[in-house]
């Protein structure tokens, strides 16, 4: 399952060192090497999956469970006032490492950072009809 040219697979295999904060059979978490805040943590499935779409639901649910528990641990460890929890999912969304990973980014009152609303481009101007159509399309695309 591991891919030779994937940095995070090499971290899982112990071939690249990391500051590991959690590991079980399915998931692993370690400190980001270039942190946006103290405690910035990445949570990954140990199996190589590039994006959320490619990650089986049971693996994704397990990763989210770990992420949920770690979020509390990270907040307490660095005495954060909040966190941004996010996946850069796909190259267009800014994903640089093609092994799916959730970011836990601690936030502090007055840290000068931005909310998640700031990540996308210009807000689209959508009519009620367009919103209805998008909602219907998403509904019919579900498994
Ligand atoms: P992405 O843009 O793919 O969501 O974020 C990738 C993250 O992985 C970045 O925040 C970057 O600092 C982190 N990163 C990249 N290479 C390494 C590494 O070798 N070790 C660790 N611990 N983090 C890394
Ligand atoms: Zn990988």
Describe the structure.
The structure is a single chain. By secondary structure, the chain is α+β, with helices and mostly antiparallel strands. It is built from 3 helices and 5 strands, in the order H-E-E-E-H-E-E-H. Strands 1-2-3-5-4 form a 5-stranded antiparallel β-sheet, covered by helices on one side. It is globular and about 50 Å long. The model has no long low-confidence stretch (mean pLDDT 96). The structure holds guanosine-5'-monophosphate and zinc ion. Zinc ion binds at residues 3, 6, 8-9, 48, 99.
End-to-end Cα distance: 25 Å
Strand elements, count: 5
Low-confidence stretches: none
The number of distinct helices, counting runs of at least 4 residues, comes to 3
**Structural class based on helices, strands and sheet pairing:** alpha+beta
**Could you say which small molecules are bound to this protein?**
guanosine-5'-monophosphate, zinc ion
Strand adjacency order, main sheet: 1-2-3-5-4
Tell me the Rg in angstroms.
17 Å
Question: What's the main sheet like?
Answer: 5 strands, antiparallel
Shape label: globular
- Strand content is 15-25%
Helix content class: 25-40%
On the 0 to 100 scale, the average pLDDT is 96
H/E series = HEEEHEEH
What's the gist of this structure?
The protein is of the alpha+beta class and 143 residues long.
């Amino acid at each position: 399952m591991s891919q030779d040219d994937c940095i995070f697979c090499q971290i899982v295999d112990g071939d690249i060192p990391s500051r590991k904060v959690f590991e079980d059979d399915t998931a692993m978490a370690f400190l980001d090497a270039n942190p946006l805040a103290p405690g910035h943590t990445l949570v990954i499935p140990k199996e190589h999956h590039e994006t959320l779409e490619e990650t089986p639901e049971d693996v994704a649910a397990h990763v989210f469970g770990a992420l949920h528990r770690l979020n509390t641990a990270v907040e307490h460890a660095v005495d954060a006032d909040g966190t941004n929890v996010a996946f850069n999912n796909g190259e267009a969304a800014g994903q640089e490492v093609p092994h799916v990973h959730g970011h836990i980014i601690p936030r502090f009152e007055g840290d000068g950072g931005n909310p998640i609303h700031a990540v996308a481009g210009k807000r689209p101007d959508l009519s009620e009809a367009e919103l209805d159509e998008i909602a219907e399309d998403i509904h019919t695309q579900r498994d």
